[in-house]
């Protein structure tokens, strides 16, 4: 019984340590993003024909091991048109890509 209690305690300490690591990483990223926004304020506008990459942000707050192996940036795409802060993209061969992509 004491062994099981000790194992549960050690496992909880590992989880608490991991949670603190994740919290610290998110805090560091927020500070970095704040510095970048202060240094380079304003909207980034892409022109038709410019090459861009699409960032897959849905994996940012997933802490599964598999996400480390998945690429977060797409292959180069070309801007086809702009609608306010969204863009229609196409492949380098000129084939349109479904949907609109937001630039933040």
Distance between the termini: 54 Å
Global morphology: elongated
Q: Tell how many strands the DSSP assignment holds.
A: 4
Measured by DSSP, the beta-strand proportion falls in: 15-25%
Largest sheet: 4 strands, antiparallel
Order of helices and strands: HEEEE
Helical content class: 25-40%
Write a structural description.
This protein is of the alpha+beta class and 104 residues long. The protein has 1 helix and 4 strands, in the order αββββ. It has one helix spanning 2-39, and strands at 51-52, 77-83, 86-90, 101-102. It has a 4-stranded antiparallel β-sheet, with no helix packed on it.
Features:
104 residues, four-stranded antiparallel β-sheet, alpha+beta, 1 helix, 4 strands
Give a short synopsis of this structure.
This protein has one helix and four strands; from the N terminus they run H-E-E-E-E. The protein has 104 residues and is of the alpha+beta class.
Q: Topology, please?
A:
Layout: H1 2-39, E1 51-52, E2 77-83, E3 86-90, E4 101-102
């Amino acid at each position: 019984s004491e062994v099981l209690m000790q194992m549960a305690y050690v496992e909880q300490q590992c989880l608490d340590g991991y949670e603190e690591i994740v919290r610290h990483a998110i805090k560091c990223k927020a500070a970095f993003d704040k510095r970048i926004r202060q240094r380079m304020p304003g909207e980034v506008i892409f022109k038709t024909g410019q090459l861009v990459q699409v960032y897959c942000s849905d994996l940012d707050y997933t802490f599964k091991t598999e996400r480390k192996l998945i690429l977060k940036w797409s292959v180069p795409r070309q801007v086809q048109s702009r609608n306010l802060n969204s863009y229609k993209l196409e492949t380098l061969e000129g084939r349109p890509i479904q949907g609109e992509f937001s630039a933040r």
